[in-house]
Design goal:
Layout lengths: L11 H8 L3 H8 L7 H14 L5 H8 L4 E6 L8 H16 L3 E6 L6
Helix pairs in contact: 1-2, 1-3
Length: about 110
């Protein structure tokens, strides 16, 4: 069941029930544990696809007590037009994505004191 905005009401218990495995097995698959047999990984991933399940990163961050988030602040969005700055931004974003880390870029706004 998917709510507006893409939020899903499914839990790992639902995935486990559909895949016919334990909650611990689903957790092992989600955490890339090498102890989970490939056949079970396939069953869990099939169940996740069937339910369009994606782990809630906010809930995960709260549980792990870390966000796995990297932010980049630039003084002006035009900074990203400079080849080196653009290359640095794109390379870091791609690397973070491969590592499962969320990265974002924000522009500093002018403030008066």
């Amino acid at each position: 069941m998917t709510l507006a905005g893409g939020w899903s009401l499914y839990t790992i218990r639902d995935i486990a029930r559909l895949a016919g495995v334990s909650v611990a097995t689903v957790s092992g698959v989600l955490n890339n544990k090498p102890t989970v047999k490939p056949a079970l990984v396939a069953r869990v991933k099939t169940a996740m696809d069937a339910l369009d399940y994606h782990p809630d990163q906010v809930a995960r961050s709260l549980r792990l007590r870390r966000t796995c988030t990297v932010g980049m602040v630039v003084a002006d969005v035009r900074t990203l037009r400079i080849p080196f700055s653009r290359m640095l931004y794109v390379a870091s974003k791609e690397r973070h994505k491969a590592m499962g880390i969320l990265s974002s870029c924000a522009m500093r706004t002018k403030t008066r004191f």
